Each structure stands twice: as C-alpha cells, then as structure tokens.
Amino acid sequence: EAKNAGRNTLRFYDPRMQAVVAARAQLEADMRAGLAEGQFELYYQPKVAHGSIQGAEALLRWRHPERGFVPPSEFIALAEDCGLILQLGQWVLQSACKQLAQWSGDEQLGALSVAVNVSPRQFHEGGFVAEVLQAIAGSGADARRLRLELTEGMLLQDVEDTIAKMVKLRGYGVGFSLDDFGTGYSSLAYLKRLPLHELKIDQSFVRDVLTDPNDAAIARTIVALGTSLGLQVTAEGVETEAQRAFLEKSGCHVWQGYLLAPPLPRERFEALVRERAAPAT
Ligand code: C2E
Ligand code: MG
Ligand code: MG
Ligand code: MG
Fold it and tell me: Which residue intervals define the domain EAL in the entry (predicted)?
C-alpha cells in the first residue's frame, strides 16, 4: 500500500513525470540485461586522411530484442546518469582493443587506428587509467593505435587530474582527440596544456559550412588553431563532396562522414577498407 501511495503522490504531482521515470527505469533495467546478454555491438566509421582510410571511430550500437535498434542519443546520457556507463564504457574499450589486436598484422587493417568515445564519468572515475591499460594488455593491442575521444566539458572539471591521466596514457602511446570541438567552453590556455593529437570540428559547423558564413568562419578558425598548435584537425559529419572540397581548401585534410560511409558493422567496414586498398581495375 505504501508503494501505491507513493505512486498516487507522483501521479498527483505530474502524470507525465511518472511515465518518464518509469520509462527510464525500464530502459536502465534493459540496458543492464542487454550488456549481460550481448546486445551491444561496435560499429566502425572510417576516417579519411589525404584520401585514404587512416582509422575508424568505434560507435556503440544497441540492438534491443523488442524495440529494435536504439541509438546512442537515447541511452548514453541515461547510462551516464545511472552509472552503467562505467561497465558499458569498459566493454567498449575492451572490444575496441580486441578489434585492434585482431587487425594487427593484417596488410590493410593492421595500420588503422581506432578511436573510442569516453564519457565524462568514465574518465573521472579513479580507475580509468588502469582500465585502459588493462584493456590494452588484456588484448595485446598496440597502444599507439588506440585513440580516446574526450569532450571539452570534461577536461575543465579537474584540469590537473585530467592532464595527469592524459600524460600517463600518452606515455604508453595512447592518443587523444577533442571531440565536438567548438560546442563547449574551451579555454585556449588549457588547450595549449593538454597533450592532444587531434581536434574534431563538430558536425554542427560542417553541416552549413557552404551556406552559413559564420559556420565557415568557425570551421576555418578551428583549422587554423589546431594546425598552429600542431594538431590533426578532423571534420565530422561530412556528407557532400562540396563540403569536403571546402574543408580541404581551408586546410582540413581529414574527415569522417556519410560522404564515404556511416558507421558500419565490422565486416562491412573491413570490406570497405580492402576494396579501397585494392588497385583500381
Ligand atoms: P560523436 O562521438 O560525435 O560521433 C559522431 C556521430 O555523428 C555518430 O552518431 C555518427 O554516426 C554521426 N555521423 C557520422 N557521420 C555523419 C554524417 O555525415 N552526418 C550525420 N548527420 N551524422 C554523422 P552516433 O553513432 O549516433 O553517436 C552519437 C554520440 O553518442 C557520439 O557522438 C558520442 O558522443 C556518443 N557515443 C557513441 N558511442 C559511444 C560510446 O561507445 N561511448 C560513449 N561514451 N559515447 C558514445
Ligand atoms: Mg566521437
Ligand atoms: Mg563528435
Ligand atoms: Mg557527440
């Protein structure tokens, strides 16, 4: 009865709120079960540098037995809130490292790097560095082929701790990218201190780069900034040849986007890499 009273109180407060809370609890339970039952999978989106595939970004996919495909936008934030991102993030790291190890030695696939998205909570957790090193050691992956994508907000939380973690992992060869660059609160003073390899221009600037002069100016500025700091600058969300050409002309030679391919299941990604490596007939 106490349970019912609680429910009624909530219903009195706001029935829509109650529905949202229940839906979140269900999704959380489903995520836990899904992780245990192998419903998660990594897809790989090719990253093109100077015309050839340099690596892949690993993107998490969830195939729910009833709902079908659930996009990251519907579960990553919730996983972050409820703490499940720690297990999910560990699974992603381990899977990406296993993939790197499997590709190593292969003529075409062995040279690729794999980028993994890291969530703020996962990064700030005490055991993060050990977790990454364990994923590397446990799989036999080459640390120099692993790249971790961080976002601006998380780097400002505890700058000294952030730098210490990055420096430690860089010592093993792990690279770092700043994802969604331009959308957060970047401080140029911090940017200079962070041991980064790459800035990724957020796709919101790429989308209208040909029609919106502000977006074009922002994209060019990020390219100039990154280049002068000695970083690789990668454009995200490139969908048309005209966007690619504009970015190229602006000095950005590395990109990802539907123009080449969306994130692909492993076998399709491998096939694409082999196909492009094969001499044209
Ligand atoms: P992100 O890391 O910025 O990833 C880029 C997103 O843009 C991906 O969405 C990708 O599918 C999409 N995309 C790529 N090319 C194009 C394009 O040409 N046009 C358009 N419109 N979109 C494009 P996705 O896979 O839905 O992932 C969304 C976000 O979810 C990611 O943004 C990342 O923040 C997060 N995420 C995905 N996988 C993971 C993961 O394993 N761990 C964590 N912590 N976050 C993840
Ligand atoms: Mg990313
Ligand atoms: Mg991004
Ligand atoms: Mg994002």
Answer: 24-277
Q: Is 177 in the pocket of ligand 1 (CB under 6 A)?
A: no
Surrounding ion ligand 2 within 5 Å at CB are 117, 149, 179
- Note the pLDDT of residue 1: 42
Q: Interface pTM (ipTM) of the complex? A: 0.98
Nearest protein CA to atom 45 of ligand 1, as residue:
117
Nearest CA-CA partner of 252 in 205, 212, 193? 205
Low-confidence ranges of the chain (pLDDT < 50): 1-3
pTM of the model: 0.93
Give the C-alpha separation, 121 to 84, whole Å. 10
Those residues with Cβ within 8 angstroms of residue 52's Cβ, 6 or more apart along the chain or in another chain: 276
Give me the long-range contacts of 131-137 (CB less than 8 A, separation at least 24): 131/90, 131/93, 132/93, 132/169, 132/174, 133/169, 133/172, 135/90, 135/93, 135/94, 135/96, 135/97, 136/97, 136/172, 136/174
Pocket test for ligand 1, best of 94, 236, 258 (most atoms within 8 A of CB): 236
Query: Residue 123 and residue 80: Cα distance in Å, rounded?
Result: 11
